[in-house]
Amino acid sequence: MIKKLLLFLPALLLSIHTYAQHSDENAHIKQLKLYEDTLKTLGKTFINDETDLVRKNANYKFIKTMVSALKVPNSFLYHFDSVKTVSIINSPDNRFRIFTWPIMNEDGSYRFYGTIQMNTGGFLKMYPLEDYSPFLKNAEDSVVNNRKWLGAQYYKIVPVYGAKTYYILLGWKGNTVKSTKKVIDVLSFNDAGPVFGMPVFDGNGKTRHRVVFEYARQASMLLRYEPEQNLIVFDHLAPPDAKEKNKPETFGPDLTYDGYKLKNGRWVYVEQLDMRNVPDNSSNAIDPQYVDPKKQAARDKKLVPTSH
Predict the structure, then answer these.
(1) Which of 18, 170, 230, 286 has its CA 20 to 30 A from that of 267?
(2) pLDDT digits (tens, 9 = 90+) for 128-161
C-alpha cells in the first residue's frame, strides 16, 4: 500500500502544481482585463477631453495604471487590444515591445510618453521614455538614452541584424499648430539600457544618427518600410514656392518619392524612386499600424452617448 502511495505521490504533486499554476494564470488574466478597462477609459479621456488639465490628469492616472498592469507576472504576453489610443508594437524578434502615445498641449503642440517593456519571461523590466524634444537642439546628430528621448508615436519596428543588432523605428511626431513631424530613429541596447540614435544614414554628403521630417500640419506624408526591397520609402517634401524654402511648416509632398536602402548594415539615401516597383501595401499615406490621435478622437466621440 505504501509503495503504491509513493508511486502515486509525484503524479499527485504535479497535478496540484499544474492546477495552482493555471489558477494563478487565470487570476493574472482577470487582473489584466480590469486594468485594460481602466486604461481604455483613461486613454479616451486624454485624447478627447477639451480641457488641458483633465487630459493631463487622465494621462498621469494612465501611467500609474499601466505600470501596475505591467507588474503583473507575464504581462508581456497580454496585448491590451482595446486600448486604441496607445501604439503598442512588438519587435519582430519578440525581444521587447514599445508603448507610445501623445498628449496635446493647450497651444496645439504635443508631448509624448511611453515605455519599453523587455521580454523577460515573467518579471517586469521596463525603461520609461521621457520626452526631451525641446532641449535636443541637434536632433539628427544626437545619441540619447530613454531619459532624453526624442518623443514620437511609433508604428513600425524593423530589426537590422549584424555585429551589433539595432532596430529602425518609424514614428509620427506631432509638432505645432503649423507643422507635423515624422521620424526614422534607431534603437539599440547596451548594458545600461536603450540607446536612441546611430550614425547609419548616409546621403547628401552627410551621415545622420536619425532622420526627421517636418511638413505642413494639414498635409499627409507617406513613410513606410518595404521588406521585399529592404527600403524605407517616403514622400519628397518641398515648399509651395522657392520663397518658402526655409519654412518647413509650409512643405508638402510633391508627388515624387525618395528613400533609404539597406546596404551592409547602413541606410543609403536614394532619390526619385520609381514607385511602380514598390508594392502599394497601404490604402493611404500612413502605415496601417499608425493610430492618428485626431482620427481616433473622432471615432471615440461617435461611440460616446451624448447627454441630454
Answers:
(1) 286
(2) 999 999 999 899 999 999 999 999 999 999 999 9
* CA-closest candidate to residue 279, choices 225, 218, 239, 206: 225
Give per-residue pLDDT as tens, 213-255. Answer: 999 999 999 999 999 999 999 999 999 998 988 999 999 999 9
Each as own residue / partner, the long-range contacts of residues 133-140 (CB below 8 Å, 24 or more positions apart, any chain) are 133/173, 139/210, 139/212, 140/208, 140/209, 140/210, 140/211, 140/212
**Cβ pair 201, 184 in contact under 8 A:** yes
- How many CB atoms are located within 10 Å of the residue 44 CB? 21
Report the SS3 class of residue 186.
strand
Locate 161 and state its grid cell. Answer: 541584424
> From CA 150, how far away is CA 158, in angstroms rounded?
18
The whole-chain average pLDDT of the chain stands at 87
* Model pTM score: 0.84
- Listing DSSP states for 116-131 in one string gives EEE--SSS--EEEEEB
Mean pLDDT of 262-290: 70
Rounded Cα gap, residues 55 and 63, in angstroms: 12
Q: Domain residue spans in the chain?
A: 1-85, 87-290
Beginning with the edge strand found earlier in the chain, give each strand of the sheet holding 252-263 in spatial order. 206-208, 201-203, 266-270, 252-263, 231-238, 223-226
